[in-house]
Amino acid sequence: MQTLTRFLGNPVALIGLCLLVLVAAMALSAASLFPNNPLDLAGRPLQWPLSNPRFWLGTDVQGRDIAAVMFYGARVSLLIGVVATLIAMTIGILIGALAGYYGGIADEILMRLTEAFQTLPNFLLLLVLVAVFGSDIKTVTIAIGLVSWPASARLTRAEFLSLRNREFVEACRTIGMRDMQIIFREILPNAMPPVIVYASVVMAVAILLESALAFLNLSDPNVPSWGNLIGGGRAVLRTQWYVSAIPGVAILMTVLAVSLIGQGLNDALNPRLKRR
Amino acid sequence: MRFFLFAIRRLAASVPTLLIVLAGLFMLLQFAPGDTVDALMAQMGGGDSAMMEQLRKYYGLDATATVQLVRYLTRLVQLDLGFSAIYGKPVIDVILERLPATLLLMASSLSFAFAGGLVLGVLAARRVNQWPDGVISTIGAIFYATPAFWLGLMGIIIFAVNLRVLPAGGLEEIGAGYTGLRRAVDIVWHLALPTATLGLIFLATYLRIMRASMLEVMTLDFVRTARAKGLAKAAVLRRHVLRNALLPMVTLVGLQAGTMLGGSVVVESVFALPGLGRLAYEAVVQRDLNTLLGIVFVSALLVICVNFLVDILYARLDPRIAN
Amino acid sequence: MRLTRRDLLVSTAAAAYAATRPDVSWAQEQPKRGGTLSVHLPGEQRILNPAIRASTGVYIVTSKIVESLVDLGADGKPTPVLATSWEATPDGKTVTFKLREGVNWHDGKPFTSADVQYTALELWKKYLNYGTQLQQYLEAVDTPDDHTAVFRYSRPMPLALLLRALADLGYIAPRHVFEGTNILENPANTAPIGTGPFKFVQYERGQFIIAERNPNYWRKEFPYLDKIVWRVIADKSAASAALETGQIQLSTYSGLSLADYDRLKKDARFDISSRGIEANAFNNTLEFNVRRKELSDVRVRRAIVHAIDVPFFIENFLYGRGKPATGPIPSSSPAFYPGGEVPYPHDLKKAEALLDEAGYKRGADGIRFALKIVPIQNGEDVPLLATYIQQSLSKIGIKIDIVNLDIAGALSAVYRDWNFDLATGWHQYRGDPAVSTTVWYRSGSPKGAPWTNQWGWQSDAVDKLIDEAASELDPGKRKLLYADWVKVINEELPIWMVTERQFIAATSKQVQNHHTSPRWDSGDWHDTWIS
User: Fold this and answer.
1) Interface residue of A124, A132, A218, A273 to substitute, partner B, most B CBs within 10 Å
2) R_g (Cα) of chain B, nearest Å
3) Nearest in space to C389 (alpha carbons), one of C312, C334, C471
4) Is the CB of residue B40 less than 8 Å from the CB of residue B52?
5) CA distance A252 to chain C (A)
6) Which of B124-133, B196-205, B251-260 reaches the highest mean pLDDT?
7) Cβ-Cβ contacts under 8 Å, A263 against chain B
8) DSSP β-bridge partners for residue C104
């Protein structure tokens, strides 16, 4: 609980939390504010913001209401961020835990695998996965999770390496606890803090990766996403730059929120750093 | 001599990883819909199936995936990266042509980020929790969160289109025939926006690491001892704190070497730079396996080299580690 | 007869139009010699040899270096280049070309009929896309002397078709450079050797190609330009920036984005138009996988077409550049255009009625059935049309999912795996329906051949009409056969040509004598100059 107080007392963390709440509010209110399908043709394309009272953020290249796409897009970005992060963290933690706990051959093999994924530039692997498995939003999310797990594996492994020889683990072994129980019930909860902090980094990167894919027109066009808006606005950048500018600001705000929260968590869990 | 042996050992240790990566990528790409002949058809605007058969045989695509993989690995062992389907030239030639642009971009943005992060991180740490710290940290956080392609696009709109002070893209004036210093200046001018785009984003990370690292070191015992002995704050900073605080920064450079290529795909695309990132993207779209695997191979070698250098630098900075 | 009079009218109009074009220096200005023309090159080709690769991406560079037997003149009719005259026997099976004398290759060797014989039999017949089909009945090329080539066919070859096609598919390669070598790996494929007004100098991959004036060109006094530089600029906005800063003076074949063309047309420094590219008309297509139960019913296909408001699409997404198509033959091809109305105009009520009639009522959620559409990404407008189709069909209760694949994936998904319900892409019309258009409708194309009939649809009547027209020697009768053909395919609707479009070029006003023939960008530019 001390951690929570510290977290909420940190102005940086509070700003991040507020921004995230704002984005979440956009996501939740999308359906009630914009009852029609945001992907439908709403009006003449490329109208400037505030030029038509119906579209206060204007319309995009496909004639869609930018405000509607912005609100529904919040859902997509948050969902992709959360799900991809869950996938990446699950894989990473599993591999890191097994490698750190058992050591030996298992560690060698799992670390070689992790190294392999880290040697391959992650955006390149993402491009290949999308080329092979398609641009459906589910596939893209899983692919982003698949390219983001190595760092959390290393982190978990490092924690497990230092924790596995502690006395409390010895004690568990003595009373005959099974390995799986030790790993998941005893060691993991203690290893979590730095890993949780890292989750915010993974989420920030996941959102940025999806928007980069959408920018290259490799994401799912059946889903209202901020990245798709930016990509679509690329052709009209010289004259209707707002089509790309507005969603860019939204992505910036969301990623900022997530990373500020991560920073706050880090500071809250490591109070020593705050002292002078 | 020991150094050399160490280097060889390092390289040898990475061989299994490299093999996993290349073989894995090769097999993964076999499942991609369409092959390089389909991409060629798209470029040509059409063709009949007899021609497509002939081309498939020409590119060696008529053999099974396993046979193709064995052929590829056999060539690789002889350090032959194969022929590029897109360019009809040896892959190594294609890569060497595109390498300079990427290296220039990466070197300049990393240097900019490292130097800027260092200076600003120190500044923020010295005035921790006062307003300079707040401002620097906030700006850092904002740049960290900005999508690189968006920052690049905005940069183009402001500086190239509206203010017309910088070129909108490309590496240099083509066909202008500049040489020597004039050419260098031309390239610097063209790389200004791309470097700023990537550099500002990297800078945010370096800034944060430097600040945290400085804060950590400043509370350690030996610093307090030095202050107690009467050394001025600046001298303490320079001689004791900085050296130790640099360690995580150097580690970061090693870690970022791996993401070099990934970051450059998008920036090279926005600024139309003829680099490896764009080449890798083209290779995926046109299913040119030889080129793609060649790029990954070269990139992996680069990462190994950089990490090796980082380890050496590490040992120099902290004598405890060398032992 | 009505048709011949109309033909006459059209060709006189064309001639009159040609005479009034202001850029043709019939008037006062004297052509200036010298200067460098910088041209936009949006993508790089793997092989720069027009004798084995037929595409505008190849011609934009190589047609200044390598020449064809014929080219198209200002009136759209074949004019002599390497062939000075031609003659066909009444049975259409023998065509004799008299070749130009005193022409040398860039490496000094003389151009002779042996080059023509070799190119036709070894390159066009075996490697050239669309050439293999055009010359499939070519049996031999006789060379009674150094300047005569006699083409002998086993089936009648309509002379008009052959000549019109040879403008694109008639480039001659030097025999002494290619004979006995591995054709696809010959270095001359990226360093072309030809007889044209410009000589190849350098190709810097990813950057530029340079060609210089040929001082020994057979058209004495030409070319006017000293040098041509093609700059590789893959990004469209970078290209328009380059045009505006003067780095390039010409960008054609819609190398810039539609939004930029719209913006630049107000700029007094540039000429934005589709003049001089009429020979390369294209359509946006909507392709049906007739194997799918719902799409096997022609009423459903017609309903889908009725649901799409094409004029709205053209006005708002194509900046007004294009027209609704009446079939696969464009109105810019007067020799074959049968005229007529747009077969299925926008009519939502009719669309709903047809679907109800076909038995596909709306469900509780308002949806009748769902389809997948695969955009085949030839241009920036393809995903726009795919989305517009998605938006339009949702109004009549058909849910559309867009499957985003890159070009290699899309071509193989549609034409090899038949893994699609709808597809949208481009159809390119190359001057004569027999070249690359009828193959979209004729049965018999093997699986995997892109831009051919892979719809799971076939019609004997259509096949018969296509085959007859391909070997009908009388131009008038040919035109009638194609008119019948268009009527039948519009009724059956295996695919639908949505729009009829022209490519757009942006040319700096400094360039003189530009776009003076219907395939000028693929021409040799020997009389182009810079003021």
Assistant:
1) A124
2) 24
3) C312
4) no
5) 24
6) B196-205
7) 141, 208
8) C110
Q: How far apart are CA B305 and CA B13, in angstroms?
A: 13
Report the range out of A31-35, B267-271, C80-84 with the highest average pLDDT. C80-84
pLDDT at C174 over 50: yes
Each residue of A90-120: pLDDT tens digit?
Answer: 999 999 988 888 888 888 888 888 888 888 8
Could you give the percent of chain A with pLDDT greater than 90?
A: 41
CA gap C39, C228 in Å, rounded: 7
Helix (H, G, I), strand (E, B) or coil at C374: strand
CA distance C344 to C306: 5
Nearest CA among C231, C344, C335, C294 for reference residue C456:
C294
Whole-number mean pLDDT of chain B? 83
* Residues of chain B with C-beta less than 8 angstroms from the C-beta of A248: 146-147, 150, 153-154
High-pLDDT (> 70) share of chain B, %: 91
Q: Which residues of B touch A241 (CB under 8 A)?
A: 157
**C426, containing H or E segment:** strand C426-428
Instruction: Name, in order, each residue with C-beta under 8 angstroms of C262's C-beta and a sequence gap of 6 or more.
Output: C319
Cα angle, residue A208 at apex, residues A204 and A210 outer, rounded to 5°: 120
Residue A271 has pLDDT above 70, yes or no: no
- Testing the interface with A: which of B149, B215, B220 to mutate, by most A Cβ within 10 A? B149
**What DSSP character marks residue C120?**
I
Residue-wise pLDDT tens digits, B52-84: 888 888 888 888 888 988 988 888 888 888 888
Angle between helical axes of A11-33 and A2-9 (0-180°, round to 10):
80
Residue A272 confidence (pLDDT) above 60: no
Rounded to an integer, what distance in angstroms lies between the CA atom of residue A59 and that of residue A243?
8
Q: Using a CB-CB distance cutoff of 8 angstroms, which residues of chain A are in contact with residue B161?
A: 238
- Determine the residue among B37, B40, B48 to mutate to test chain C binding: the one whose Cβ has the most chain C Cβ atoms within 10 Å: B48
pLDDT in tens, A9-53: 778 888 889 999 999 999 999 989 999 899 999 888 999 999 988
CA distance C47 to C42: 15
> What number is the average pLDDT over the span C310-334?
94
Q: Which DSSP string do the residues of C168-186 spell out, in sequence order?
A: HH-B---HHHHTTS-GGG-
What residues contact residue C231 under an 8 Å CB cut-off, 6+ apart? Answer: B174, B175, C38, C39, C40, C41, C207, C208, C242, C247, C248
| Mean predicted confidence (pLDDT) in C278-305 | 95
Q: Report the SS3 class of residue C27.
A: coil
- pLDDT reported for residue C6: 46
Nearest 5°: phi and psi at C323? -140, 160
Query: Which value, in Å, is the radius of gyration of the alpha carbons in chain C?
Result: 24
Say if residues A99 and A157 touch (Cβ distance below 8 Å): yes
Q: For residues A201 and A187, is the Cβ–Cβ distance under 8 A?
A: no
Of the candidate ranges A142-151, A172-181, C451-460, the one whose mean pLDDT is the lowest: A172-181
| Contacts of B128 by beta carbon, 8 Å cutoff, 6+ apart | A276, B211, B215
Q: How far apart are CA B270 and CA A212, in angstroms?
A: 11
Q: How do residues B114-152 score in pLDDT, each as one tens digit?
A: 999 989 988 888 887 778 888 888 888 899 889 888 888
Query: A220 to chain C: nearest residue by CA?
Result: C404
Q: Does C317 touch chain A (CB under 8 A)?
A: yes
| Beta carbons of C274 and C478 less than 8 angstroms apart | no
Instruction: Inform me whether the C-beta atom of residue A12 falls under 8 Å from chain C C-beta atoms.
Output: no
Placement of tokens 């049309």 in the chain: C385
* Residue C25 neighbours by CB under 8 Å, 6+ apart: C31, C512, C513
